[in-house]
Amino acid sequence: MRTTANIVQLGIKELRSLWHDKVLLGLIVFMFTAGIYTGATSSSLELHNAPVAFVDEDQSPLSGSIRQAFYPPSFRQPALIGSHEVNRALDSGTYTFVIDIPPDFQRDLLAGRYPEILVDIDATRVTQAFIGAGYINSIVSGEVSGHLQRSSSGSDLPVRFVVRSLFNPNLNGIWFGGIMEIMTNVTLLSIILSGAALIREREHGTIEHLLVMPLRPFEIMAAKIWANGLVVLCSAAVSLFLVVEGFLGVPIAGSVPLFLFGAMLHLFSTTSIGIFLGTVARSMPQFGLLIILVVLPMQLLSGGMTPRESMPELVQQFMLLSPTTYFVKFSQTILYRGAGISAVWPEFVAIAVIGIVFFSVALLRFRKSISLTQM
Questions:
Q1: How many domains does the chain have?
Q2: How many angstroms separate the CA atoms of 334 and 187, rounded?
Q3: 151 Cβ partners below 8 Å, 6+ apart?
Q4: Which of 184, 223, 231, 237 has the smallest count of CB within 10 Å of its CB?
Q5: Which of 203, 185, 162 lies closest to 285, judged by CA?
Q6: Within a domain: residue 284?
Q7: In 3-state terms, the chain is what percent helix, strand and coil (to 5)?
Q8: Does 166 map to a domain?
Q9: Residue 122: domain span
C-alpha cells in the first residue's frame, strides 16, 4: 500500500510539473490537434479537381465516352479546345492535362491497328502530374477495353471483376493519414515526455530531493510512466473523437476502447524506452539526437508508411523487437477492419512482453544512474 501511495503521489507531482512546462504542454496540444489535421490533409495521394482538357479530332462515340469518364471530384469538368491552343493553355497553367485523341481513332482501333493518344502534362505540378498520369491511363484503358468487348461480342462478359474497399471505399488518403498520425504521435510524444521528465529532474536538481526521501527507483520510474502515459492516452482519445472523427470526418470501424487498451500497453513500452534514453543522455540536446536515431527508424520500419512485406527479410525480423510494429498492426486491424480481441490478442501479448523487457532494462539503467548521482 505504501508503494502504491508513493507511485500515485509521485505521478501527481509529474502531472503538476508538466502543467507548468508550457513548451511541452503546447507541443502536446499542437501535435494532437493541428498536427493531426495538417499531417492528414497536406499530403494527398489522390487527385482532386485536376483541370483537364480534350483535343477531340475523332468526334466518335468512343472519344465521347472517354471524355465523359473524366468527372469530379478527381477531375474538373473536361473542356474542349483546339490543337493550336494546347501550348498556351499549358504555359498559362489553365490545364494540367491535355488529352489529344487523333482523327479516325475509333475506326483504327476496330480495324486492329494501334492508334495512340497524346497526353500533354504540365510537369511543374510534380505530384499531381505523376498521380494523374496513372489515373488517365486507367480510365482510357477501361473505356477502350469496354468498347472493344461490346463491339466484338455485342454483350458484356458473363463474369465481371468488381473491387470494393470495405474501409474507405473512395480510397481517400485523409482517412488513412489521420489515424496514422495519431499512431505516430502516440509513440513520439510518449518517448519525449518520459525522457524529458527524467532529464528535467536532473537539470533542475530535484532528483537529489527524491533520493533523500524513502523512495525506491522502481517507484520513481513507475510514477513517470503512468503519469506521462496517461497524458498521451487521454490526448489520443480526445484527438480521435474531435479531430479525426469530427474535423476530418473519418469513420472509426472498430472498438475505440479496445484500441485505447492496446495503446496503453504500447505506452508502457515506449515510456520505458524514453526513460532509458533519458538515463543515457546527459542533456536535452543529447536526448533530441537520440530521438532521431531511435524513434525515426521505429516509425519508418514499423509498417505504417511502407508494408513490412516489401522490406528486406533481415529488417522484418529485427523490427519484431520493436513495439511500434505490433502497435501499427493491431491499430489498423481494429480501427480499419473492425476486428475484435480474438484477432489482436497475439499482438497484445507480444507488446506486453516487449514492454516488460524494456521496463526491466530501463529500471536497471535508472538504478545505475541514481547510484552514480549519489556518489
A1: 2
A2: 18
A3: 110
A4: 237
A5: 203
A6: yes
A7: 70, 5, 25
A8: no
A9: 52-153
pLDDT in tens, the chain (375 residues): 778 888 888 888 888 888 888 888 888 899 898 888 887 777 666 677 889 999 999 999 999 999 999 988 888 899 999 989 999 988 888 999 999 999 999 998 888 888 899 999 988 877 778 888 888 988 998 888 888 777 665 555 566 667 676 666 666 667 777 888 888 899 999 999 888 888 887 776 666 666 667 778 788 888 889 999 999 999 999 999 898 888 888 888 788 899 999 999 999 999 999 988 988 888 888 888 888 888 888 888 888 777 788 888 888 888 888 899 999 999 888 988 888 898 899 999 999 999 999 999 988 888 877 665 555
Whether 7 and 131 map to the same domain: the answer is no
Are 258 and 365 found together in one domain?
Answer: yes
E strand or H helix that includes residue 79: strand 79-80
The gap from C-alpha 1 to its chain's centroid, in whole angstroms, comes to: 42
Is residue 194 within 8 A of residue 225, CB to CB? The reply is yes
**Is residue 68 in a domain?**
yes
Residue 21 in any domain: the answer is yes
Give whole-number Cα distances, 244 to 173, 216, 238, in Å.
13, 41, 9
- For residue 94, CA distances in Å to 100, 128, 134 come to 16, 14, 20
Cα gap 375→183, rounded to integer Å: 41
> Rounded to 5 degrees, what are φ and ψ at 52?
-135, 145
Rounded (5°) CA angle 58-63-64:
115
- Residue with cell string 515526455: 193
Same domain flag for 367 and 243: yes
Please say whether the beta carbons of 102 and 58 come within 8 A.
yes
Per DSSP, the three-state class of 204 is helix
